[in-house]
What we know:
By secondary structure, the protein is an all-alpha fold. Helix content is 73%, strand content 0%.
Amino acid sequence: MYRTISTILxxxxxxxxxxxxxxENWFLIWVGLELSTLALIPILCxxxxxxxxxxxxxxxxxxxLSAALLLNSALIQAWLAxxxxxxxxxxxxxxxxxxxxxxxxxxxxxxxxWFPDVLQGLPFFQGLIIATWQKIAPLLILFFxxxxxxxxxxxxxSLISILIGGWGGLNQTQVRKILAFSSIGNxxxxxxxxxxxxxxxxxxxxxxxxxxSTIFLLFEFLNISTLGHLNxxxxxxxxxxxxxxxxxxxxxxxxxLTGFILKFISLFFLINNGFILLSSIMIIGSLLSLFFYxxxxxxxxxxxxxxxxxxxxxxxxxxxxxxxxxKIWLLSTLSILSTISIPLTLPxxxxx
Length: 352
């Protein structure tokens, strides 16, 4: 794809998200979501392979269904309330339609079945856009207008997402599917926290975007698609082994890494509101997901596979020096933020 065309498409995606965030009209929110989705479709099928086209068509059909549900919800609301304003209280039918539409867009259970298959058929960079940027606008709709939506539906869907995100990734060997189920589980954590504290959910969203972007860019840089490819990280440099292990453990929420603050904030607000049983179910789902995070980390650390000793330390023989690219600088910065930025997030948490 030409650089000019790709730049225009990326700017359209960003502008669509900005329209959603800054709108006070349900129709403009729908327009912003559709603008972002339609601009993303050419980027997703840029490789033009059969698996890539199949994933793009599935993504388009799911997004078209969710957009139709959201527009129907807005039409019912405008018909009954006589206004397109988002400040008007939603009726029950509009609330249910809007909840289902946003669940499809976010890959929230039980509307999650499309997400692992689509992410598996796309390269890491396109998958990164779907797993991070495309979820910002629907999440902010839930964060800021969650009081207008039936809360118990969101709580039940979030709990199911946490359990499915942990259970579904246990038997996966494809890295993209593992990241997809990880995303499903983290969406549950974000949304269930937003019911009780919007500011805390926004802070959790920022942390999740940093960690998830790091792991996608890292796997793209190392060209890892399955768990069996993780041993090749030792052929690049020992630093890549440490980065994969630390970022995956941070995504799992182990202290003292940055991802720990994500789980801690959510449990803090839930326990303070007296939801002990709810917190226990979430911890069980988090322990399930921690199993495949540790599995990725262990496979990365096992560098002494049956192979020639020269190939194991081939990074020593690489004497060619070249300037670091922008992607490497971005990956380095995100890696630092996703592993040791707890001192930066704690003041934000205290202010909340």
